[in-house]
Every structure is written in structure tokens, then in C-alpha cells.
Amino acid sequence: VLTFTWPAKGEQGAVPISIDCGTRATRYEEDLVDVLCPPSCDHSRLSVWGSRVYASVSSICAAAVHR
């Protein structure tokens, strides 16, 4: 399950991990990971399953754009 959270205004989040366009949440064991998606992803070619809560086999970057 992918969940997206953002730090409260003025709150510093963790340093994000750079990921590839097709990286899926199944790659991470942690419940919460801050990631940085590349700007050049072709989201139309990436798989997303869910809305608001996404299946862990979804592309993290595509799910973020979908959300």
C-alpha cells in the first residue's frame, strides 16, 4: 500500500531518496519513505492500481502524479 504524506507547513521532512520512474513500493520495507521522482517520467507508460491508496506494485512516481 502506498500512502503519500507531506510535511506540515514549515516542517522539515526527511532527505528524499532519488528513484527511477518505474520504482515500485515493493522495493522498500519501511512504511514511509520520502522519494524524489525524475522530471522526465512518461507516466502514460507506467502502471497504477488504486486511488488515494495505491497497490504496492504501482509505480511510485505515476501514483504520485495520479493522486
UniProtKB/TrEMBL annotation:
Cross-referenced Pfam families: LCCL
Chain ranges passing through the membrane: none
Stored InterPro entries: LCCL (IPR004043), LCCL_sf (IPR036609)
Domain LCCL: 15-67
Protein's UniProt name: LCCL domain-containing protein
Organism: Scyliorhinus torazame
